[in-house]
Amino acid sequence: MKNIKKFLLINLGLIIMSVGLHFFLIASDLAAGGIIGLAMVINHFFPILPIGIIMTALNILLTIVALILFGKKFTAHTVYSSLALSGIIFLFELLLPLDGPVVEDTLLNLIFGIVIQGIGMAIIFYQDASTGGTDIIAKVLNKYFHTEIGRALLITDFVVVIFAGLAFGFTLGLWALVGIILNGLVIDRVIAGFEEKLHILVISHRYEDINRFVLDKIDRTTTIYDARGGYSGEKKNVIQVILNKKEYIRLKQYIRSIDKDAFISVSFTHEVLGEGFNQYLHS
């Protein structure tokens, strides 16, 4: 079931990416970095070569790098994603050809294209895959130099934007530069949203029931420690637990049903490492 969910989410990300690319970026000659941008530059000089085919050829080279550095599992996901993305874009070009951009305003095409593409890329990255190409280079920077994915993509895509400026003109080159900056911000923000957890403290005389609910129903571990009321001086038991938003809603509903006077404190946690959550990176 977990693998099926991962597969479906990767495909969802690919479809979202393709929509942003085909209808907004490619149609407007906005080569916002990556193998996609490089393929657009090559297609500009050799229009007989479809962009999807160019992407496939370029991805083969960097896939070898992924196999050496990240192993078979990541490479398998990446190969599938890169080939599927190329195929989806090729189908869009074949079945839904465009004579020009969806809207005439360059800024609107850039914003909608980058935001849609960035959301799709973030979904794919979060499933421990990539779309190949310069994404693999960004993954190298992320794993071995602990650079955030969005910032790593900005570094690798900058060179592509220079070529895009030469191919499509200085103005579109500047638009593409804005695009890769926006793309990095969107990806980092979406991934941060996926990883965001809630740090929860609960004080209740029904702490044993609440603790058992977290362990048995939500399948998370807790920490219980002794405390003392600053005003009353009474001894209290404090439950500490890290949950996602969906799990917290379940916990809050349960606590309300058994102890309406329970004290609950919730704060956002940017990152959680360890068993049951993200694993530590090893350089």
UniProtKB/TrEMBL annotation:
Pfam families linked: DUF2179, YitT_membrane
Positions of the DUF2179 domain: 220-274
Top-level taxon in the UniProt lineage: Bacteria
One of the record's GO cellular component terms: plasma membrane
Statement: the UniProt record of this protein carries the keyword Nucleotide-binding: no
Keywords: Cell membrane, Membrane, Transmembrane, Transmembrane helix
Transmembrane regions listed in the UniProt entry: 12-42, 48-71, 78-98, 110-129
Protein name, UniProt field: YitT family protein
Source organism (scientific name): Thiospirochaeta perfilievii
